[in-house]
Structures are given as C-alpha cells and as structure tokens.
Amino acid sequence: MTVLTRVTVVSALLAALATPASADRIDDIEKELIQAHAKLKSYTAKTRTSHDFDMGGDGSSKSSDKGTHEWMRQSDTVLYRIESTGTSVTRMGGQDSTSLTKSTVICDGEYMYVVSDSDGHKSAIKSKADPRTGGDLALIMEGLRDEYTLKVLVDEAVNGQSCYVIEGTTKGRQDHPITRQLTYFSKETGLAVKMIGYDDAGKVVFSSDTTDIKVNVPISSERFEFKAPAGVTVTDLSNMPGPAGQ
Known about the structure:
Blueprint: H1 3-18, H2 21-38, E1 42-56, E2 59-74, E3 77-92, E4 95-107, E5 111-118, E6 121-128, H3 137-147, E7 148-158, E8 161-170, E9 180-186, E10 192-198, E11 204-215, E12 234-236
Parallel strand pairs: 6-12
Antiparallel strand pairs: 1-2, 1-11, 2-3, 3-4, 4-5, 5-6, 7-8, 8-9, 9-10, 10-11
C-alpha cells in the first residue's frame, strides 16, 4: 500500500466515524450489547479503578482501589456483590490527607447495601437497588448520552476480548472533571471491561479495568444476603426520593 493510498484510507475512515450515521451505528451496537448481556446468567471478575483529579490551586484528589465483582441473574432479578479496598489521598492547603477504605456493596434484587470501613470508622447504608450498578445497559447508555456526545471508534481487543469502543465528549460543561471518555464494551458479554477518562488537557484522570472474567459460573445465593456488621447501625435511605433512595 502506498503512502498516498494509506492516507486516503485513513482519511475515509475518520470521515466515516465523524458522520451522523455513526449515531445510528451506536443504536445498533447498543441493541447488540443488550442481547449479549441478556445471555449472562452469572459472572465473577476482578476490578481495578483509579482517579487523579485537580481540584484547583494546590488541591487534588487521588485514589486507587482493587476488588472483586460477583453477579448473578435469577429470572428477572439481578443480584450482585462488589468488594473493594482502596487508598485515597486528598491535598488541600498544602496538607495531604490519606485514607484507607474497605467497602462491600450487596444487592439482593430489591435493596442495595453499602458497608464501608474508612480508617476504622464503619458505616452501612440501605437504598433501593440501582439498575445501573447491576449492569442495565439501556440505562448505562442513556447516562452516557446525557453526559456526552458519543462517537464509535475503531474496535479494539482488551484482554483477548473484542470490544466496541465508544468515545464520549462533554456537551460544553466547563465544570466536568472528565471532558473525554473512552468506554470499551465486550462484544461477547456486553460488559464495560475498560474505561479511560481524560481532562481538558488530555491527562488521564480516571481509569477502570475489569479482568479475569469467568462467565456462567456457579455462585451461592448466600453471597447476596446482607448481614449488618456487629455494632453498626444501618442508615435506611430506601424511602427517600432521588438518588439516595433511587
């Protein structure tokens, strides 16, 4: 292939990705991903996330955590358990504050419980189940459309999985810490196996990876039963309107 031919092909590809027709392609991809996700009966995976946000002046917020994800479908009910351990560092006024947090999120299909232990301070919150956390792809895509202008990029492989890559750019919001986001959706499972967020200077400020995915494995239903930690009072927000109560 000559240099001129290569340039012509690349230019044609970039033009195709920039056309309004890509919106129709996103709709088709969404349908395909929803169908793939609907075939999942269960899965387990390892997760790793991090962020590095500039808060203005000398302020900053950094965190890094890793954990596990267990997910199971029972008829039309989705159950999940997410465990993670992470460290965060917040800098304000020239001083750094470091915190170690362990958290467990359990959804029994109706309610979601979040138990956290931050530097020895334990708490537990009960709220209505959040379908987005449970992996409802229609709601996840709706959220992306609300926040970003979307475009389909060239497919990529992530940990051996062929993925659709959806680019989102913010809709003119100046206060948004992530102005450009790449989300990698596995064609096989419909799961978002990787996310990368950039600020307006092109710096990576957020990343998320889901690895070691094992599909349709047996998981005991007891893993999704919530038991309050000894001595911890559960704050019940399930009757509250809005995001807290869902």
